[in-house]
């Protein structure tokens, strides 16, 4: 794991109405925690012209109105905020989410990791996982990071559709889907927990930084 | 009084859009909204919501009530009860009137707006249809023959639409998040070779053809998934460039060489399959000057 002291943020434009503060070019606990911490500070900062603050896996996106601010002044504000940023941030909220570990790829996953299915389930749930970010699709959360012994690449083929509430596993992470979607990740289980409801505001429950305890259903 | 409209013909991608559903990226939802924002505005700022027309026949009948409509975007043909009218323009519809719209000489998207709000439930603050997320508009889907739309009681006449001066020339971009990964030779060729708009286009993205094989050599870069914005040009593993549009996925893991500037994204959206495109880089500051001056 990369230590916080080596995290050097880059401020880069993304088109002409967004700026990205990027803590690393690869996923690490430190870069992810720094992104979540910066987003929390920016949520409270109300910088002139900033319309939206979005934490991602290793970065924070700011959408801005170029008639109200310029890229240069926004980058200046960001440098000041980064200078005083506590890159570990506050701990998130704790959740317990019941999971039926019965996905069609569960056996293959356990075998590929050299474990029995019960051993894999136990190893998967040994520690709570952090919500790294919400992205890709409505309410889709990436949780991690698993220890190196539990890292598997994606499947070689894409499954055309998995339902909402699917528990997916790949690349050292566990993801929870909230809508039906295609995926190349391993399908290891299912939950009744619904993280996206278009009828309520905000439409998702889980936030980046929250801690999730995966509770296997008997 | 209000009005009731029946859709008699619609293309497979004809959707209801308003300004967009902003502020939802952190929940995994991109903003949607008009593919040509300028044309949506020029169609007249009447009631909330517009029908985004595509390169397909569209027809509606006013089954009761009356309303005014405004329309703009691309070059479509429009007829009221079989009689042609100029595009863009406005007209008043009475009960029983039939409006027929067909694709004309150029453009992919047109906008039909009404003097009254389209009476559909707001989803997370917007009427915009996201076909990707299957929400907003009418049941989160494209319009189809037989659909009935109610217009609300309050009226707010669409302004008279104005034509747009034709802007020609290269599509301008700012270098993207992963531009440096492509190397100076590829970046130089990206600016000097010509690309073609392919027939594979929808509200999520537009595939380009790369006849000079600028991105011919496959890349299998494994990148951390990061924020996507409309106009991003991502390069797939087989070298295919895709311009991500209004229904883009909020995050993505393919390398992105460039982002089309806001002032040129509407114009790009209206380019038909087979159109040749040259790309030219500008600074973010230059893109902002274009936006402030209104010189799209």
Please provide a written account of the structure.
The complex is a heterodimer of chains A (218) and B (296). Chain A is of the alpha+beta class and 218 residues long. Chain A folds into two domains: 4-83, Gyrase A, domain 2, CATH 3.30.1360.40; 94-216, Cyclophilin-like (Cyclophilin, Beta Barrel). Chain A is 21% helix and 29% strand. Chain A has four helices and 13 strands. Chain A has helices spanning 29-45, 71-83, 106-112, 117-124, and strands at 10-13, 18-22, 50-55, 59-64, 94-99, 129-134, 141-144, 159-162, 166-170, 173-176, 181-183, 186-190, 211-216. In chain A, the strands form three sheets. Chain A has a seven-stranded mixed sheet, with helices on one face. A four-stranded antiparallel sheet of chain A has the order 1-2-4-3, with helices on one face. In chain A, α3 crosses α4 (117-124). The mean pLDDT of chain A is 94. The radius of gyration of chain B is 20 Å and the shape is elongated. Chain B has 296 residues and is mainly beta. Chain B starts with a strand and ends with a helix. The longest helix of chain B has 10 residues, at 183-192. Chain B folds into two domains: 3-155, no CATH class; 171-293, Cyclophilin (Beta Barrel), CATH 2.40.100. In chain B, the strands form four sheets. In chain B, strands 7-6-9-4-1-12-11 form a seven-stranded antiparallel sheet, with no helix packed on it.
Largest sheet data of chain B: 7 strands, antiparallel
CATH fold label of the largest domain in chain A? Cyclophilin
The rounded Rg of chain A comes to 18 Å
Indicate the mean pLDDT of chain A. 94
The proportion of residues forming helix of chain A, as a percent range, comes to: 10-25%
Q: Helicity of chain B, in percent?
A: 10-25%
The CATH architecture of the largest domain in chain A: Beta Barrel
Structural class determined from secondary elements of chain A: alpha+beta
Distance between the termini of chain A: 34 Å
